[in-house]
Amino acid sequence: MAALAVLAAATGSIALGSCGGETDSVSPRTQPAGPLRVLRSNPRYFTDGRGKAVYLTGSHVWWNLLGDRTWPADCYTSGRQPFDYGRYLRRLAHYHHNFFRLWTFELTRWRECGGSDVQLAPQPWLRIGPGNGLDGRPRFDLNRFDDAYFARLRDRVVRAAARGMYVSVMLFEGWSLQFAEPPWNWAAHPFNAANNVNRIDGDANGDGSGTEIHTLGNSRVLAVQEAYVRRVVDALGDLDNVLYEVVNESGPESTAWQYHMTRLIKSYEAGRPKQHPVGMTFQAPGGANETLLRSPADWISPAGGQAFLSDPPPAPPRVQLSDTDHHCGLCGDATFPWRALTRGYNPIFMDPMDANPQREAIRWALGNARHYAQRMNLAAAVPLPQLASTHFCLGVPGREYLVYRPGRGKVSIDLRASRRRFRIEWFEPSTGKRITPGLVRGGGRRTLSSPFRGEVVLYLR
């Protein structure tokens, strides 16, 4: 908490959120001004109606849409706790986050961490029978939507907008379909023939997995999915803070289906007053980042393991959300947001929302990195690893440079692009201390000594 509080006091540009109180409202100035669109001058970022680059960062948790019931706290602590969406939004605002993925699950039951079952409701379709599905509840009618699902979806996105936050709405979910703990994987899916009254069987090859529902192979399944996607767009299409994510971690066999769904959304919104970005996230297992780069999506979320967290390649001109979920799951440290920022990525964090000190440091680092991104002319900023001795540098040549040093030592930076003087600012992420010792003249390569011994951020402007 100290780090962000110090930045707020020093610059007056950040207002800390509070974990108390019940209101979701904030100043209209901080609310989205229009749907995001890719920034033409710098396609690594989005822009909104104000014309500035919008830097997205934040943390997401699996049960932020379907988690009103009692959930296990996480796989690493004992006990259960109800999910409080209002408190979740206040937490994100407290850390100065402005983005999260809104998770859905296609299964009706979920066995968490080898423990007891969790009920996942509501689902997009009405459960009115006749007869019961394998989970003991009335079977689905896949021709009739459950308005409660879409009302909840809209309410959650609207409340996030009031907090100035963008929401990536997950349309489908593939990881649980492949890897959920038995018995509730395919047996708990609405497209299992035993679970719907429409005689739709998504498991065409009879292997008990149903992964083929995320392909184009079954026209009846596809028709139900397309109708559902259009219903989601109908529910959210007038809102400014919406992004769409086709599916979380379906395998490479889903490529053509994901491309199709992306084009479907774009086509369906084409004649509407507002269009929203559509994203494709990493395919697991066995996916390739090249598939994402070739996609018609407006934004992508790649994977690269621990190496991508510590030394990501400079981002090409494409909006990319670097998500720990796709790199290594519950992982990362407080250096990850700074490494991602200075290489041109929008970092986000899969977060069980526990009290783990390392994860707490990551939450604050995400907010502090966003603070510096907001101060920069991000619309013109590009990764410049070749200019800094640390190789972590984002800047506008001749105008401003943000350099990150993970360890110790002096910082050398090439300022030959301008002979003007630059104001020096040092920031120590671990303590929140900020020092502005003076100026340095450009026109050559300069070596600066940090007033801090360890991890440090240098901002020259």
Summary of the model, kept short:
Helix content is 25%, strand content 26%. It is of the alpha/beta class and 461 residues long.
Secondary-structure topology with pairs:
Elements: H1 2-11, E1 37-38, E2 46-47, E3 53-54, E4 58-60, E5 70-74, E6 77-82, H2 85-94, E7 99-102, E8 109-111, E9 117-119, E10 125-132, E11 138-145, H3 147-162, E12 166-173, H4 175-179, H5 219-236, E13 242-248, H6 255-269, E14 278-281, H7 289-293, E15 299-301, H8 305-310, E16 319-323, H9 324-327, H10 336-342, E17 346-350, H11 357-375, E18 382-383, E19 393-396, E20 400-405, E21 411-414, E22 421-428, E23 433-441, E24 445-448, E25 456-460
Parallel strand pairs: 4-17, 7-12, 12-13, 13-14, 14-15, 15-16, 16-17
Antiparallel strand pairs: 1-2, 2-3, 5-6, 8-9, 10-11, 18-19, 19-20, 20-25, 21-24, 22-23, 22-25
Helix pairs in contact: 3-5, 5-6, 10-11
Q: Estimate the mean pLDDT confidence.
A: 91
Helix share bin: 10-25%
Shape: elongated
Structural class: alpha/beta
Q: Please, how many helices?
A: 11
Cα distance spanning the termini = 26 Å
Oligomeric state of this protein: single chain
| Poorly predicted sequence stretches spanning 5 or more consecutive residues | 1-6, 8-28
- Based on the coordinates given, report the CATH architecture of the largest domain: Alpha-Beta Barrel
